[in-house]
């Protein structure tokens, strides 16, 4: 998740008189308010916004803090300054819930997709603003739009930071053994077994089954969806214990317990530990968020044998099924109780604009601070962005054409807890079918209590 990310970005901006404000990019090209669809003439000059978010050291966020704070490009174009909160990731969800229902401190908020349904009713609908500013919503993946929309069909956020899952692999190992990059989970397991047989001491695939913010669900839901299963049906009832769900889950658990192509310690691994297996050269494959590309290409962050030897491909699908992985998205919206909704919209337009996101994603001046994250298809397919990031943005765009988001239900936090604990229990020996059935009963009780059905 994002709490593991880091980075800082520096830019130079100057003010001249043209449409009220101009800024200078690193390439020397003059930028106007119109470049980002902002209002000319600084109508909100002097406004100070408060932005509720975490993780100020994440590469993308750190760069954009520099672009929107005192003396920044955004301030020179609009006269607006923005204070970015740096709430710890673990505390952010609860803080958003409190602010949405009882607070009036913050103007703008970013949230993780599955959290949103619990407070979307307290967010300002954005359709009229989107239409007025002619923002092309078709440029975003469907999964990102779904997570940014409330139960009544109102768009309450614009996609801000998003990640598809991709398959990272050791290019040198694959070349040495003459292996093809697998496209299905079934082939991943076979390839991992071959690697372990021919490269003693190297784990074929790094995975994560530990209980930590739902991270052990990422690959599981990809297998579940790819096999034609689902977490909830259209009425909100649990269906992950269906025959297809049992089959996909058994496969996921077998990677560890039967096939033994992953580290036995994966029962305790979350994202940081599982990614480190590839970073430090102990594993040959890992399926995770695409933003790790910057980390895998950082000479200070990887083992010497790993540097320049990590390749990537779309996350594997299910043999004979659909290639559907989980797409993580952070929408950006305005609290209904904000005193500065119009100035907040200017800020949202700026940081979500493809032009700003391309500037951030293409900046690799400091390897440890790079971040390939970008949320529009046009940005993901941009030549400069891909040249700066080894082509992974295009691969991400490919993965996002069939990606999905987690269920948009207000009970997700409770459901996630049931699912991640159950996955861990199965990974440590519990029977798959019996555990899934028990989990389904627990989720059914949660959904009934919340009024989704009787």
Low-confidence stretches: 1-28
Principal-axis shape equals globular
**CATH class term of the largest domain:** Alpha Beta
Write the element-wise H/E pattern from the N-terminal end onward: EEEHHEHEHHEEHHHHHEHEEHHHHHHH
- Give Rg in angstroms: 22 Å
At CATH level 3, the topology of the largest domain is: D-Maltodextrin-Binding Protein, domain 2
Q: Average pLDDT value?
A: 91
Helix content: 25-40%
Q: Please give the number of β-strands.
A: 10
Structural class: alpha+beta
Please list the strands of the largest sheet in the order they lie side by side.
Answer: 4-3-5-10-6
> Count of helical segments?
18
Main sheet record: 5 strands, mixed
Give the name of the CATH superfamily of the largest domain: Periplasmic binding protein-like II
**How many structural domains does the protein architecture include?**
2
Distance between the ends: 35 Å
Our estimate of the beta-strand percent is: 5-15%
Specify the CATH architecture of the largest domain.
3-Layer(aba) Sandwich
Overview of this protein structure:
With 454 residues, the protein is α+β, with helices and mostly antiparallel strands. It has helices spanning 59-68, 73-78, 89-102, 127-132, 142-147, 171-177, 185-198, 218-226, 243-257, 271-279, 292-296, 341-352, 354-362, 377-380, 383-388, 392-400, 412-427, 432-449, and strands at residues 22-24, 30-32, 48-52, 81-84, 108-110, 158-163, 165-170, 285-289, 310-314, 328-334. The two termini are 35 Å apart.
